[in-house]
## 1
Amino acid sequence: MEASLGIQMDEPMAFSPQRDRFQAEGSLKKNEQNFKLAGVKKDIEKLYEAVPQLSNVFKIKDKIGEGTFSSVYLATAQLQVGPEEKIALKHLIPTSHPIRIAAELQCLTVAGGQDNVMGVKYCFRKNDHVVIAMPYLEHESFLDILNSLSFQEVREYMFNLFKALKRIHQFGIVHRDVKPSNFLYNRRLKKYALVDFGLAQGTHDTKIELLKFVQSEAQQERCSQNKSHIITGNKIPLSGPVPKELDQQFTTKASVKRPYTNAQIQIKQGKDGKLMKQSKTVDVLSRKLATKKKAISTKVMNSAVMRKTASSCPASLTCDCYATDKVCSICLSRRQQVAPRAGTPGFRAPEVLTKCPNQTTAIDMWSAGVIFLSLLSGRYPFYKASDDLTALAQIMTIRGSRETIQAAKTFGKSILCSKEVPAQDLRKLCERLRGMDSSTPKLTGDIQGHASHQPAISEKTDHKASCLVQTPPGQYSGNSFKKGDSNSCEHCFDEYNTNLEGWNEVPDEAYDLLDKLLDLNPASRITAEEALLHPFFKDMSL
Ligand code: ADP
Ligand code: MG
């Protein structure tokens, strides 16, 4: 212990700033831990109070997850004869809309329980508190293991993710929040589970009845035509009949925080519904990019707007800011474009980022592509952006601006981009980021595991992303590290039992699949079913 802290046993007990610092840091950490433990204990007590029937069945041990919309606890239960079972208890925030909750539950009960989709055991409710009890799957932190996974493990991970996506897509569920923290992975047991249907929506022919009330194309259409307001108050207008039982079963007092309709989008739209233009978002981004980064600035418009503005648009509907990086007062006053946009920015597909109203299961495949990009490049998160247009600009630095603009046209969006950036070769990009030079197949760049927590492309560095393309391989300025270097960070390899096998010869099929997942055009993007049959998985069976 002492040795690991660099303190020798026979060190005199005199004043030592070094030791004082360690001690101070140690006690600070301990205090923090105690504080956290006390907080968790309090939360557990509160949960028992809110849903008292839980105490008849479960011993709640710990809090294992806390998000905006729920807290997840680890509990044990004696459910059947035999040993105690580990259970995950998901306590949804009491302000969640009843339909939203019921739809999440229905996804788990109908589609869950097989093919790597999490199932559900029980559900408890008292007043507006709902707790979903699921089998517990102990899992790894993606970031912790990212750079220690063997190539074969990456293949298995992706194969099992597609298995889960094929299953839910067959049920007409669009998950909308596919990312590593929602795909649990137990490396030792080779178990996987897709969780968190809290943002899920249905396809037009969804088999999940309640998803029809959460979102439907028809509703979306109605929403964009009839609703110009953003929901802000306590009353939530439902644009469709709500099953009676549900209405009676749940009571919510507070406002909806988790979107169950698509009414929270920030694009302005003309009163006639024809003219629309990005407003504040564009303004912010243009300013940010124009003044700070001098990189790419983007605008997204309906293609119809472009045509109309350029040709026969009546004077009253045109404005001065077309093709500039300003947003005029006419545009600022336009109504919002309505389209579903839930999810995590770095994982959002181009059609989500551009607020295309017709979104399909293809958006989950894009997100799976971003996960694959992380696995192949060793960087997580790969994209880090706080707003949609920055995220779009980041995608362009990888997939090319011309290609992105071209693809957006196919789904009715026009993107204006201040600078042209070429598409990158995916193999070269991943090898460089991972620290593998394709001509000399060994580690030459960043130490694996060291830089993995740095996003490959972030808001601070995205202007460099295009430079990254131009940087000749070998000049990448990461911490130099060679396999077998005795002074290198050995524990990084020991700790996670790194298996470099297979990384020296990543087959072309891997990048071909990645390319098909990151297809900018959702209509031609590979489906989960097709991905499972891709040559990359040739010797794997369902
Ligand atoms: P949220 O909607 O708050 O994101 P999730 O359903 O994604 O809720 O759960 C949050 C976290 O809780 C997950 O990232 C995971 O770490 C943990 N978790 C959720 N379900 C389970 C489960 N069945 N077994 C183990 N851990 C789980
Ligand atoms: Mg989640």
## 2
Amino acid sequence: MTGKNTSILLIYTGGTIGMVNHPETGALQPVDFKAISNQVPELKRFGYALHAIAFDPPLDSSNVNPEVWLKIAEIIKKNYSLYDGFVVLHGTDTMAFSASALSFILENLSKPVIFTGSQLPIGTLRTDGKENLISAIEIAAAKIDGKALIPEVCIYFENALFRGNRTTKYNAEHFNAFTSENYPPLAETGVYIKYNTAAIMKPDGRKKLSVQMKLDPRIVILKLFPGINRSVVEAVLNIPGTKAVVLETFGSGNAPSDKWFTSCIKAAVKRGLLVLNITQCHGGSVEMEKYETGMELMKAGVVSGYDMTTEAAIAKLMYLFGKAYSLAEVKKHLKRSLRGEITL
Ligand code: ASP
């Protein structure tokens, strides 16, 4: 139930939802927030106090980086006590990265932070943006016994609300652009909004929001493919200053068993590089002990990323190294579910 006194802050960062075609080239480019709200007069029909903060200029989400995540975090921090919930309008391309990052940055979150956007600009006739925006606001405002129903960072898209750090963009043209293969939706919308209360996080209401304003971006991804050669692997593992490598492996965490490959990984681990095993599959988990090819990685000192998405892995590593933890502490936290990002 929501009261008349509900207040929601919209944070418009950019994305297709607020884009128009360039008059000459026809390419999509962002416009300001006023142009968006003019397209959705329905916003006025909510009984809530609805305010907006817009990035200037708005960003295509391909230009989003850790600084932008911290900027969003800063806005939420400053306005945390003033609003019941937050809706972040964001491009879909990197939305899963941003939602993952914010889930870690915002420690002890007890209010909703709902990311949404659209595949078609809000000014187009068949836009998916209106429904996404309106439902995201309604979800951000939802309460039970005076407390937020969704005290998490989520992505709302098409007809589902997903935990942000479980989500991946998997389709560039379907309205149903996101998937969360390893965790059920927190809500599904149709005629009714059906909340999956058992799947929603229960925050410790006594703890205050704390915002981790330092991230360490010295992380790389090494995606395996049949035929990957030694010079590529060596080049990536030897990038100076790198703290961790997300090793995107096959199936349940497997990699070629060539001796050169294993010894490259072993040497990197010995030098102090953290190698985190994340499967290339959208669903399922890393189980290095299942096959001999995975076992070799485990013996080489590779750490399991369990069923974490690549997006969440990148964000979690930047967050943990941002805290200036020792390697042993980072490894300890990787084995824990900090924000529901892994199934243990
Ligand atoms: N390129 C756009 C962005 O991510 C795509 C979108 O919003 O759907 O900003």
